[in-house]
Amino acid sequence: MDSKLSKLGYLIVSLILAILLAGYANSQQDSSVTRNAQSRGANGGTGHEKTLGLIATKKSTFSVPLQLNGIDTEDYYISGAPQNVKITVSGSSALVTSAQNTKNFQVYADLKNLTEGEHTINLKVSGMSNDLTYKLEPEKVTMSIAKRAVTNYSVQTKFDNQAIANGYHAGKPTSSVNAVEVMGSTESVQSVQSVVANVNVPRDTKANIRQDVTLQALDANGKPVNVSISPQVTTIKIPIIGGEGSRQVPLKFNGKNGNLKEFNVDADVNEVTISGETDDIEKVKDVQLDIDLKDIEQTKTLNLNLPTKKHVKMEPDNVTVVVTPKEQN
């Protein structure tokens, strides 16, 4: 009897141990699968990836061109439609990456059978995998349809002559684009009076100008007109030429045979007008005049000739100076 009970006890203990071992093995296997799935998600993700079971998922936002379908853009002018729209694609990581890299789908506005005028159109997507979801931004676009008109205009260059430095003047401007094609609705194109390149000239300009300028179509009141211009950018060159000019510079005194700080000096002028070629007078910052202080022991009036400078004329050509020793004050 004892022997039978002992055997039964061993069987029960063995069964319990087997159940415990099986449970432990299953938990280890589940933990390993979870770790492997998490490891794959962490190593292959872009910050927007998740794991759904053992499949990595991803969400990505990028720009794609907007296509205009169902209308002949050679005959009609479309305004208000953006060049690109944003799309957010979600799904398996591999499919999302493929869609982003290949862009093997199309975002379009269906303009078929629409008449001239303004329309609000829901954007559509074709060619997208059924296993992906997406969201467009914007989802709808308001655009205008009008009969297309095309005409040619010559380019006019405009700039502020007053910004050019004194003594300089602008030569004849040149443009890399002399004529442009203006496209738009018939009404808009007919309102265009000129196509201009507005050049920004810095104040006191003395150097030649070279500037890339975006062209503008203007109406009779000088206001911009909403049309397309091709080409849209031109390079403007304006030569800046120096000529004759004049300007005032300060008169400065230097002591000779004595210390000028020990004397008061009063002159009938403090500035001198210099004139000549612009490049020459630009080099003159002031006019220096020497005063001979030897034997001046009391107030003395001197008539001094200004020094001459090559190619530069000075006015006046002499100044009257009253020199007084300071100890007599």
UniProtKB/TrEMBL annotation:
Under Gene3D superfamilies, the record lists: 2.170.120.30, YbbR-like domain (2.170.120.40)
A Pfam entry, by short name:
YbbR
Q: Which InterPro entries match?
A: c-di-AMP_regulator, YbbR
Q: Which domain of life is it from?
A: Bacteria
PANTHER family, per the entry:
CDAA REGULATORY PROTEIN CDAR
Return the protein name: Ybbr like protein
Provenance organism: Weissella minor
